[in-house]
Amino acid sequence: MRRHRLLNFLATATAMIAGATMVIGLLSDPGSDARTVAALVIQLVAVTGAIAVLLGILNLLSVHLGRFTHAERGWPYSLLVLVVAVGVIVLRILDRAAIWSGDLEGEQLSPRVFEAVQVSVESALAALIVFFLVYAAFRLMRRGVTGWNVLFTVTIVVALVGWIPLEDLDVFAELREWLVRVPVGAGARGILLGVGLGTVTAGVRVLLGQDRSLRD
Amino acid sequence: MNDSALIIVLLTIAFSATLIGAMIARRVAVPLRPIAAYQALPEIAADAVESARRVHVSLGSSAVGEPGTVSALVSGEIAYQLAERMAISPYPPLVTLSQGTTLPLAQDTLRRAYEIRQRAAYFRPTQVAWYPQGPRSLAFAAGASSLAADSDVFTSILLGRFGAELAYFGESAVRHDQILIAHSDQPAGQAIAYAQSDRPLLGEELYAGPAYLTRRPLHIGTVVALDVLRWLVILAILFTALQAAL
Fold first, then answer.
1. What is the ipTM of this complex?
2. How much is the average pLDDT of A42-56?
3. In A, which residues are within 8 Å of B198 by CB distance?
4. pLDDT score recorded for residue B152
5. Residue B210 lies in a domain
6. Does A193 have pLDDT greater than 90?
7. What is the model's pTM?
8. Are residues B109 and B225 in the same domain?
9. What is the share, in percent, of chain A residues with pLDDT greater than 90?
10. How many cross-chain Cβ pairs, A to B, lie less than 8 Å apart?
11. Which site in A105, A171, A196, B213 is 20 to 30 Å from B149, CA atoms measured?
12. Is the pLDDT of residue B129 over 80?
């Protein structure tokens, strides 16, 4: 228990000092000592981020290995993930060793595989989003016909119709542009302002050392 | 007023309002306006325990060490409150995320929740699943929502940073008859959350979550500070608009 309390104290002190350092650094002139120390803290975060990616890969492999070995529902997909993960790691090692010859000499295959699989799959998934959103608007109206729900649905319809490249529908295109420029722009700014203010107040809690992640 | 002065004023007001709010909350009960999502969360945790089913919490791409740091911390706190209530169940919550730096935070949050309920032996680090982040995280959304469906999840709670990929979680929740509570600190994700979620959280409502779920004076103090700052911003906008008009 005493060890836990000491660790919590150290974690809290580290968070408070790092937070205060960053605030002072951001408020200082460029080139000042405080700004240099803040930059050093950011560099430490970048290094930690790189280690975290490694931890993430280990987590991914352990989650799917567990699902495969316990034959949980969907285990074939986990097996596929494991095989592909190992395959990509091996491919990357072979790329680094520059063992390819013939037409492939000097080529990097792992970025090609990434482009061919990941980018095309993500593009296909992105294309489906519009259907999900239209269905979501339909469900929204089924939940209840309120003023806000009607406004949301009408806006979606105007935005979608506004994309149709027909001369007769120019008015919808203009309306869509106005919607995006004025109400949508204002709403997005409002949300971002709210998020910013929320970040400040929650940040105060962290700076006071009162965040749950710093104590048991 | 330059940027540095503005930051100092903002932080001073936030600190003062938080501490004053916390002092008031220690003496009298401060009423908080009802937010459907936070009213439902304790019931969802209780239902999950009673019906022996799991709850999926996704932190999206909230990343510790990046602009989404505070979103990640607050989402972690809400996940803690759920996990603490559900720690007595043999069906633990499932947490998914797409940022490596948030992974230790999420695992540690669950570990603490299990420890506090003296169920540390039942905690498994694999309750938290990381998915590599793509350009739009669509692969993450597809993988995480599929894992949630396979894990017999009955509620999905999406908190933090999501873009258009939130639509996948929403669609999967509809198909598998899950309750969906969603939030995003990005406008695109927020719009989708509003359309798809049964009980959406809007903008800064995420940051008020710990106050609603723990009722600790300091957390209530941050809600008071949030309201003070919000009114100051509204007044500043009105004042600037009037000044420009006259």
1. 0.87
2. 84
3. 143
4. 87
5. no
6. yes
7. 0.86
8. no
9. 12
10. 182
11. B213
12. yes
Domain count of the fold of chain B: 2
Residue B207 domain flag: no
What pLDDT was estimated at residue A128?
A: 84
Tell me the nearest-neighbour CA distance from B39 into chain A, angstroms: 19
Alpha-carbon span A181 to A176, nearest angstrom: 9
The owner of tokens 């509570």 is B181
Out of A59, A121, A122, name the one closest to residue B103 (CB).
A59
Of B151, B219, B226, the CB nearest to A198: B226
* Domain co-membership, B24 together with B75: no
* Residues B117 and B176 placed together within one structural domain of the fold: yes
Which 3 state secondary structure label does DSSP give B161? Answer: strand
Whether residue B25 is found in the same domain as residue B44: no
In a domain, B206, yes or no: no
**Domain CATH code at residue B115:** 3.40.50
Instruction: Please say if the pLDDT value at position B28 is more than 90.
Output: yes
The domain segmentation of chain A, as residue ranges, is: 144-216
Q: State the residue range of the domain holding B225.
A: 1-32+215-246
Q: Encoding tokens for residue B81?
A: 């409150």
Burial category of A165 from C-beta neighbours within 10 Å (exposed 0-12, middle 13-18, buried 19 and up): exposed
